[in-house]
């Protein structure tokens, strides 16, 4: 960017003034504050202004000067968007308590205990250059290549000052964590803290005032990942001049300096942790009560997952063995002539004919279908527990502000994900059962031959031959491969059901806890209403844009539909809450019974469609009539595996709760539409980007607090937070 000659001359002039002032380091604190304005102008020289147009250059320079002046008189926090891209700046009181520049503009400050201001991105240049480089088994690799890689990973973090005079009295601290699942053999440079915890290993280093900091760390990794860097720079109670006169061997040489660093870092991290409170209701008593209720629900879903999955896996194995017994038993009765080493075509066609009617083979297929449905649906409890835990974590970090809209959107996404994956899992299981059934009869036929059986004596050796084949699956490479594919398909169905369970849990949480979630949240009313002036209500007031729900006929119709739908769903949720209160038994967030398409299930019988043509295909379809099974697919074109409120189910294939269809209709996706054209949520502006940034800053603060406790235990150092004379920094820097 080009600047005017006058502008550059002015900047050079003020730069000279700053340097002269900074050289007078023995001057008192008041002199430093008088120089803040001059330093601020120097900072502006790093900020492009021509992008706003020539006519606005003067105004841009003035405003950037105000921003820079505020930066040098406050502590600075930022959640970087990339390792070399600082984000919006958050300024908190602490650097100079009596300096409180007014930089409201559209980035207004929030009224809270720890007052803060926000500076738009790229308006003020930070004095730090932060880099992270990686090696994998020796050679240097990029961040994109190291993410998810396995091997010996080297991590080099460099923190360098680009404005040494501004950072001369600041002590740098860098910390990050590596999950234990990645690797727990973490090593680092001498003097670097490496502390293993229950779930991750903490790496932290404290540098010397005014000096750059470099950290080398190594880990034998599996699917490598790491946290963002937590970077801080704080003042100690000693100035750089005093520090130069004392021992330079180690920062631990001065207990006073340690106490000052620890105290100032504690104060800085406390304010960083509280930033999000200014945007949310994270610390309210109502939230603590809500979290306690959600923790009970989560633990209940975990218990149901453990017991229900174990029980239904046994039932599924029994049904699977029963299917094989009936399938092979029918095949045996149709054997004729001499027995070879592979499946007899005439015998398997005879089995196909038995699929049409009330026969043991047909019933075994229905029983297996029900068992597959039930064991898959049991995993909805696992998904529900995970979803509730995620909601708890979110409330702990950022409160309930804007959470209703977020959970509703997420529920819709998870519902679609689950339905799509379940449909794919059905096809995968059908395709897996085709070769498994045929390979089993191949192995069974060969075993009959080994036992010396004939068509007439095969039935007497049937049980022994089936048992021998089952016991030798691992020794039969072809059958083992087919068996593994069946297991993979079952896992795919379980994973899909977990997504469906998450959708149901999120939806039910929104309904059951509507009062608590909406308390103190103006982003959306519980009935989906909007501000009377036609503007959408946000977390911090109204946005000056007319809402589509107020200005369009379609929007009003959709709003009315949503309101009526939410009213009915809320009544259902209230009934569940009343039941919980009356009998003390918690109602699950999911329905763990469902039915899937029998068109897919019927191919379990041995791949009759693909292997034996149209005649066998027709007989396999007829089994859908056995036991009252409905062969139609669910209305979403895939699976009937859907999340719902809790209703009674008989357990028969094809029985599904009527509320499942209602839930599928109710769950939104992330766009706006009208009734009849797909369910949509209204687009509502919010401040989730601010919340996300402050949560990242709070997470960085949490890691630094952990490092502080390990580096300077409370019983070894007296924390001393002092009035600081310059800006301190706390930065959250992603490196992957």
Description:
This protein has 736 residues and is α+β, with helices and mostly antiparallel strands. Helix 8 runs antiparallel to helix 22 (688-711), helix 9 packs antiparallel against helix 12 (380-398) and helix 10 (345-354) packs parallel to helix 20 (608-622). The radius of gyration is 33 Å and the shape is elongated. The protein starts with a helix and ends with a strand. The longest helix is centred in the middle third of the chain and has 49 residues, at 285-333. The strands form three sheets. The chain has an eight-stranded mixed sheet, sandwiched between helices. A five-stranded antiparallel sheet has the order 5-4-6-11-8. It has 22 helices and 15 strands. It has helices at residues 5-23, 29-34, 36-44, 57-71, 143-146, 164-167, 240-245, 255-274, 285-333, 345-354, 360-378, 380-398, 403-450, 462-471, 477-512, 514-518, 548-551, 553-583, 598-601, 608-622, 658-666, 688-711, and strands spanning 75-79, 89-92, 116-119, 128-136, 140-141, 151-161, 170-179, 187-188, 193-196, 200-206, 213-221, 229-235, 535-538, 541-546, 729-733.
Distance between the termini: 30 Å
Q: How helix-rich are the residues, as a percent range?
A: 40-55%
Low-pLDDT residue intervals, each spanning 5 or more residues: 1-55, 95-114, 239-253, 520-547, 600-682
- Summed up, the helix count is 22
Q: Report the major sheet.
A: 8 strands, mixed
Strand arrangement, major sheet:
3-2-1-15-12-7-10-9
Oligomer: single chain
Structural category: alpha+beta
Radius of gyration: 33 Å
What is the number of E strands? 15
Strand fraction band?
Answer: 5-15%
What's the overall geometry?
A: elongated
What average pLDDT do the residues reach? 73
């Amino acid at each position: 960017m080009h600047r005017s000659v006058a502008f550059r001359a002015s900047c050079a002039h003020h730069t000279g003034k700053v340097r002269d002032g900074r050289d007078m380091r023995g001057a008192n604190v008041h002199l430093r504050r008088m120089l803040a304005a001059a330093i601020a102008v120097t900072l502006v020289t790093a900020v492009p202004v021509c992008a706003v147009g020539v006519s606005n250059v003067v105004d841009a320079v003035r405003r950037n000067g105000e921003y820079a002046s505020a930066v040098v008189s406050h502590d600075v926090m930022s959640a970087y968007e990339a390792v070399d891209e600082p984000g919006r700046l958050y300024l908190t009181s602490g650097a100079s308590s009596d300096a409180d520049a007014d930089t409201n503009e559209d980035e207004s400050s929030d009224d809270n205990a720890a007052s803060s201001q926000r500076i738009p991105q790229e308006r003020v240049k930070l004095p730090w250059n932060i880099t992270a480089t990686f090696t994998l088994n020796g050679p240097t690799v990029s961040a994109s290549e190291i993410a998810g890689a396995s091997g010996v990973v080297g991590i080099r973090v460099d923190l360098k000052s680009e404005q040494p005079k501004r950072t001369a009295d600041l002590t740098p601290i860098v910390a990050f964590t590596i999950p234990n699942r990645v690797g727990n053999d973490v090593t680092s440079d001498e003097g670097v803290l490496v502390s293993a915890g229950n779930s991750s290993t903490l790496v932290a280093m404290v540098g010397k005032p005014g000096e750059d900091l470099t950290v080398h760390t190594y880990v034998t990794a599996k699917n490598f990942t790491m946290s963002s860097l937590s970077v801080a720079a704080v003042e100690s109670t000693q100035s750089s001049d005093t520090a130069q006169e004392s021992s330079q061997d180690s920062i631990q040489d001065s207990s006073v300096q340690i106490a000052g660093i620890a105290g100032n870092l504690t104060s800085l991290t406390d304010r960083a942790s509280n930033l999000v409170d200014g945007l949310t209701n994270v610390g309210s008593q109502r939230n603590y009560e809500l979290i306690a209720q959600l923790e009970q629900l989560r633990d209940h879903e975990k218990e149901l997952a453990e017991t229900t999955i174990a029980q239904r896996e046994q039932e599924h194995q029994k049904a699977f063995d029963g299917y094989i017994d009936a399938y092979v038993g029918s095949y045996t009765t149709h054997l004729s002539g001499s027995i070879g080493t592979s499946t007899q075509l005439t015998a398997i066609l005879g089995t196909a004919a038995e699929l049409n009617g009330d026969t043991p083979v047909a019933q075994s297929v229905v029983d297996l279908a029900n068992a597959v449905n039930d064991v898959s649906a049991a995993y909805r409890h696992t998904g529900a527990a995970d979803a509730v835990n995620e909601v708890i974590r979110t409330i702990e970090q950022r409160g309930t502000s804007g959470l209703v809209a977020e959970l509703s959107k997420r529920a819709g996404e998870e519902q679609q994900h689950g339905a799509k994956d379940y449909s794919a899992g059905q096809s995968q299981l059908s395709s897996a059962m085709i070769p498994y059934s045929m390979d089993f009869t191949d192995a069974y036929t060969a075993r009959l031959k080994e036992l010396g059986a004939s068509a007439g004596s095969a039935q007497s050796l049937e049980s022994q031959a089936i048992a021998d084949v089952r016991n030798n699956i691992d020794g039969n490479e072809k059958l083992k491969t087919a068996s593994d594919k069946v297991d993979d398909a079952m896992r795919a169905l379980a994973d899909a059901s977990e997504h469906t369970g998450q959708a149901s849990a999120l939806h039910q949480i929104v309904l059951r806890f509507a009062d608590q979630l909406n308390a103190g949240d103006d982003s959306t009313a519980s009935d989906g209403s909007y501000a009377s002036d036609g503007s959408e209500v946000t977390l911090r007031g109204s946005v000056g844009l007319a809402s589509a729900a107020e200005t369009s006929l379609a929007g009003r119709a959709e709003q009315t539909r949503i309101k009526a739908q939410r009213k009915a769903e809320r009544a259902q949720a209230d009934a569940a809450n009343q039941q919980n209160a009356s009998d003390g038994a918690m109602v699950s967030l999911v329905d763990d019974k469902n039915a899937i398409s029998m068109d897919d299930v019927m191919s379990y019988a041995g791949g009759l469609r693909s292997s034996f043509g149209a005649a066998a295909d027709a007989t396999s379809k007829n089994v859908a009539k056995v036991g009252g099974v409905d062969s139609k697919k669910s209305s979403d074109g895939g699976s009937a595996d859907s999340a719902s409120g809790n209703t009674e189910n008989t357990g028969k294939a094809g029985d599904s709760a009527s509320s499942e269809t209602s839930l599928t209709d109710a769950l939104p996706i992330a766009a706006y539409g009208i009734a009849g054209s797909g369910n949509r949520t209204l687009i509502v502006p919010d401040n989730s980007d601010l919340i996300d940034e402050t949560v990242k800053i709070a997470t960085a603060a949490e890691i630094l607090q952990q490092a502080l406790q390990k580096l300077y235990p409370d019983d070894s150092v007296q924390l001393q937070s002092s009035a600081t004379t310059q800006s301190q920094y706390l930065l959250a820097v992603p490196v992957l």
